[in-house]
Write a structure and sequence with these properties.
With about 70 residues, the chain is mostly helical. It contains 2 helices and no strands. It has one domain. The longest helix has 30 residues.
Length: about 70
């Protein structure tokens, strides 16, 4: 299970890095595009945070296996 979670976290991190590279490579032509990509990146950060918080709760025993 832990390997699966680590793989998910790596995929999120890699996807965010690719998103950043694409944004920097293309340049920002309009503010709405920048805001869209920035919002998407913020969502990925939040997903990463939720995964980490859930892992900590699981380790403390606050969450049980189903």
């Amino acid at each position: 299970m832990e390997r699966l979670i680590q793989a998910i976290k790596k995929n999120i991190k890699d996807h965010k890095q690719e998103l950043s590279k694409n944004l920097l490579g293309k340049g920002v032509e309009n503010i709405s595009e920048f805001k869209r990509v920035y919002g998407y990146a913020q969502g990925l950060d939040k997903a990463f945070q939720i995964i980490n918080e859930t892992i900590e709760k699981y380790k403390k025993g606050d969450i049980e296996d189903e």
